[in-house]
Amino acid sequence: MNRIKSFTLISSTLIASLAGVTLLSLPSQARNRCRTLWEHLDPTMQCQVTEFRGSSSPAVTGGYYKSTDRPEVYAVNFTNLTYCHVQNPSQMNAFGGFNQVKRFTPTVANEFFSSKKFVGECRWGNGLYKRQHHPEVFHLFDNGTPSACWVRTSNQVRQFGGWNKVRSVDDSSDLKVGRTFSEQC
């Protein structure tokens, strides 16, 4: 039987509080912190952190997960029970680093992911990005719709925050995924 536990935030540590099949909202300070984590999935969602306990799996909290026998990392959204594939190490670093990835045995991972819907590649967070071996700079933003545009001049780069804000990412990064793209800003 699957059970979901709710958490409250105490001194920046999630501590189990109530058992049952329910999702409870976090206090506003935790919700803001959590919203940043999930920006790449759905920036408008109400963020909730929960614990999943499968019949044979250990308790795990929302975040980043992988099977011990596979290199892929997935970001899991417990609010809408979806998960996306973290594209590469650059994206995982942009999401806060590999130290937060929880690892499961293949059996536990299969059980864990089977109750969620795969939604494809993870969307990058808002900001300025450049693939390492490509000259193009892209501005990723959200004006009600997740969008991306190609920054064509140094003046535009300055307008969007300057060269020091441009993050260099792996060449394999799909910066347009999940966004409406415009050829120029």
Name some characteristics of this structure:
single chain, 185 residues, alpha/beta, 2 domains, five-stranded mixed beta sheet, 4 helices, 14 strands, 36% strand, elongated
Strand and helix layout:
Blueprint lengths: L2 E8 L2 E8 L7 H11 L11 E4 L6 E2 L2 E4 L6 E4 L4 E4 L3 H6 L6 E4 L1 H9 L2 E5 L5 E5 L5 E6 L3 E6 L2 H6 L6 E4 L10 E3 L3
Parallel strand pairs: 5-8, 7-9, 10-13, 12-14
Antiparallel strand pairs: 1-2, 1-3, 3-4, 5-6, 6-7, 10-11, 11-12
What would you say this structure looks like, in words?
This protein is α/β, with parallel strands linked by helices and 185 residues long. The chain has two domains: 3-121, no CATH class; 127-182, no CATH class. It has four helices and 14 strands. The strands form three sheets. It has a five-stranded mixed β-sheet with strand order 8-5-6-7-9, covered by helices on one side. Strand 10 and strand 11 form a beta hairpin. It starts with a strand and ends with a strand.
Give the biggest sheet.
5 strands, mixed
Q: Give the helix/strand class.
A: alpha/beta
Radius of gyration equals 18 Å
With strands numbered from the N-terminus, the spatial order across the biggest sheet is 8-5-6-7-9
* Rounded average pLDDT: 73
Our measurement of the CA-to-CA distance between the termini, rounded to an integer number of angstroms, reads: 51 Å
Total beta strands? 14
Please give the oligomerization state of what you see. single chain
Q: What is the overall shape? A: elongated
Residue windows where pLDDT falls under 50 for at least 5 positions: 1-61
Count of structural domains:
2
